[in-house]
Amino acid sequence: MHVELKEIRKYFGEVKANDNISVSLEPGKIYGLLGENGAGKSTLMKILSGYQPQDSGEILLDHKAVDFPSPAAALGAGLGMLYQDPLDIPPFSIIDNYLLGRDNRLSLDYRTVIAEMNEIITRYGFEADIHAHIDTLSLGERQQLELVRLLAGGAQVFILDEPTTGISVEQKDVLFSSMRKLAHEEGKTIILVSHKLDEVQELCDHAFVLRRGKLVGQSTIPCPNEKLVEMMFGQVPTRRERLPFDLGNPALELINVNISTYRLNVSNINLQIFAGEVIGLAGLEGSGQGILLRTIAGLIQPESGQVVVSGQDLTKSSYHKSRNFGVAYCAAGRLEEGLVSKLSLTEHMLLAEPTHTFMIDWPAARERTNSRIEQYQVVGQPESTADQLSGGNQQRLLFALLNPGLKVILLEHPTRGLDVRSMDWIWEQMYARREDGTALVFMSADLDEILERSDRIAVFSGGVMSRVVNASEVSVDQLGHMIGGQA
Amino acid sequence: MILPRWAERFWPVVPIIGALLFIIALLFLFGADPLESLNIMFLKPFENQAKMLSVMAFWVPLTLCALGLLVTFTGGLWNIGVEGQMILGSLGASWIALTVDAPAFVLIFLEIIVAMLAGALWGALTGFLKTHGKVHEIFGGLALNNLASMLSLYLIAGPWQPPEGGSFRGTPPFQEAALLPRFAESRFSPISFVLTILAIGLVFFALNNSFWGLKLKALGKNARSAFLLGVSSERETIYAMMFCGALAGLGGAVRVLSWFDSLRQNISGGIGYLAILVVMLAAYRLLLVPFISFFFSLVLNGSLTLQLKTQLHSSLGGILTGVMVLFILLFGEASKLGFRKEVEKDE
Ligand SMILES: Nc1ncnc2c1ncn2[C@@H]1O[C@H](COP(=O)(O)OP(=O)(O)OP(=O)(O)O)[C@@H](O)[C@H]1O
Ligand SMILES: [Mg+2]
């Protein structure tokens, strides 16, 4: 199907999220949509998929103007979108969830549906277990499920908004091969929104670049990364070298920690982390890194062993007690765990601060918020609500909410959804915290990020911390082998 | 049902108009003159001081309960137990009125304090059952409502029965000093009105300017994120229930000390449940609550008059409010389901 967007405009108050954008998409091709955080990518894609209306401009499908009142109507016309933040209704089984999207049927014919889904799942090499409940699925599995739903709904155009953040390498490979199959063999159109240029180079045939709501360039792929980066930011951002840092006293000690959860047991963790040190936790999705972070944060109680922070035993302490003691935790699911959609930035700031007054001094709080969001370059007003921020800016807000003077910072997928420039910026801010004696522990699906940003790397597989290595002494390939469980 | 934009702007007028049209149709069906009936219900009371005072006397406890509910709703709590909290308040006030001998101002002061404490205790109990016993506040609230009304029946029939023997109807009338001073032989007490206005200010302040209100707001919108941001859901849940319970308890005191002059069966008159409807119709907006509450009081009092004048049963008022709520739920769901509209509203 031929898709054309003509002079699309969408303003949010003063913000010109989309400012006169025109693009034309051929069937059978994979397009990349690039641009810095807040450039207007998600806005444009949400318009195309019927999630929100444009202020002006036209959408043409096979040269006929269309207007979608809802995402369901867009899917009916063949446009399906995978949102940046999955919009699920958790406590259903996959089949129920699938049926929800197909309310045209009166009776629920489970057997046909299961056969239909299994057919799609095998055709594209997906692995999601359709009998599982959604809340037990990983992000990557939920995503496959969403794709299955779109495929069954008859989508001709697939819009994927940052689909590879937070999913495993295997899941990414499966996703990409299914995308290739859909485009190159079945003639579907794919639009990939991504900040990862390597992925764009790997998958796409053509790329569009947005900046501040305008289409500022396009190019066939492959093309040099520098050229894309220059289009995205208007210049090639310079990177600052990470300065060496003298480590201090032990900030976090894990002694014989055993954790058991219903999904996985993590056993016998021994690790000493020093003030100012950055530790990366590497491993396949669900190998125990996340569970360990939550245990240190006080969200999970270990079965045995000790968690010691700055010489104080916090093994039995609650999340709030640990938090007050200076242990900060940022979860991966921004709008589910960490931010409250309809609260303003100032309100978030007030909640996160370590000390509170009984009465709120709104003007002063606004001032503090303003300087904090300036420091972390959150594009938004103190009055903006969290869900009005672009994905990357929500991520920056999470960082902006970290108080000064912390002892340990625990991060799940810290740069999820950030553009290259702000990724560097955020890491710079994190490194600056070493001066306070803060130790940093983070997990990431991105091995390059782990290698580049950490001092030491703890490798996890199947609930076991199999080894701890110096980041300077391993290569990406070696690390890849280690997390696969091979030496 | 999807509302057009203009209709959304005039919320909550839409469900009210919808319900009124429904009632007019109903009146036609019963062969009554709709214009005359509506006139009796809505306009006549404004010409008659006694009627107006009666409406206001009903308005006071209804508004107090609704204000309390606004706080618990903000925290994401379905405080069905407000009815029981109100009953407990009336028990607390009655206890002082029946047992303490003191000058009027001391008595009234004590009655109000004890009533608020009793209501808060009942609220805290529901909160505690939720946070420590994993009993959902709807079920805990219903159970405690039941318990509260049993307790009041027992007290009326037993320890507090009139000397001439238990009639199961109520306690003997309280001493004059224990009653709230009332305006011109009506049931309306100016003190209770002033307290209600103060409560409106207090709730406004709590929700908009106190850190506590912000914590509740966060809890109500996303309990998980609020927890991660440092909000203790257990403590705030119990506090919110106590806050609501105290206001409802005050409402209960007003019922026994000015609407009636003794503790009666069915002292609450369903005001607790009615208050839930008020808050929903007000779309959880504080500044709408006093007006919606006034409207409800008007309708319910008006339908009593209607019965006297036209033989139509007074349940008409109940039907009217009930239908309004159905209309709200009908339209209210739309804004939840159609997330598309949410997006547009932000502009
Ligand atoms: N509902 C909304 N209300 C107000 N402003 C909004 C809303 N949605 C988006 N914006 C603003 O529009 C701009 C573009 O946002 P958009 O989400 O399209 O960015 P993006 O390119 O997807 O960025 P990211 O890479 O961070 O996801 C941002 O400045 C954002 O704050
Ligand atoms: Mg986006």
Q: Roughly what is the average pLDDT of chain A, rounded to an integer? A: 87
Structural class of chain B: mainly alpha
Biggest interface between protein chains, with counts per chain?
A: A-B, 36 and 25 residues
Uncertain parts of chain A: 88-92
Shape of chain A: globular
Number of extended strands of chain B: 0
Give the CATH class of the largest domain in chain A.
Alpha Beta
Sheet-strand content of chain A, in percent, reads: 25-35%
Oligomer: heterodimer
Enumerate how many helices of chain B there are, as a single number: 15
Which structural traits does this protein have?
heterodimer; A: 487 residues; alpha/beta; Rossmann fold; 2 domains; six-stranded mixed β-sheet; 16 helices; 20 strands; 32% helix; 26% strand; B: 347 residues; mainly alpha; 0% strand; disordered C terminus; binds adenosine-5'-triphosphate; binds magnesium ion
Reconstruct the topology from this structure.
The complex is a heterodimer of chains A (487) and B (347).
Chain A: E1 3-12, E2 15-25, E3 30-35, H1 41-48, E4 56-61, E5 64-66, H2 71-76, E6 79-82, H3 94-100, H4 110-123, H5 139-152, E7 157-161, H6 169-185, E8 189-193, H7 197-203, E9 206-211, E10 214-220, H8 225-233, E11 250-260, E12 265-274, E13 278-283, H9 289-297, E14 304-309, E15 312-313, H10 319-325, E16 327-330, H11 345-352, H12 362-375, H13 391-400, E17 408-412, H14 420-432, E18 439-443, H15 447-453, E19 456-461, E20 464-470, H16 476-483
Parallel strand pairs in A: 3-8, 3-9, 6-7, 7-8, 13-18, 13-19, 16-17, 17-18
Antiparallel strand pairs in A: 1-2, 1-4, 4-5, 9-10, 11-12, 11-14, 14-15, 19-20
Helix pairs in contact in A: 4-5, 11-12
Chain B: H1 5-9, H2 13-29, H3 34-47, H4 49-74, H5 82-99, H6 104-133, H7 137-157, H8 190-209, H9 211-221, H10 223-228, H11 233-259, H12 271-281, H13 289-310, H14 315-337, H15 339-345
Helix pairs in contact in B: 2-3, 2-14, 3-4, 3-13, 4-8, 4-9, 4-11, 4-12, 4-13, 5-6, 5-7, 5-11, 6-7, 6-11, 8-9, 9-11, 12-13, 13-14
Bound molecules: adenosine-5'-triphosphate and magnesium ion.
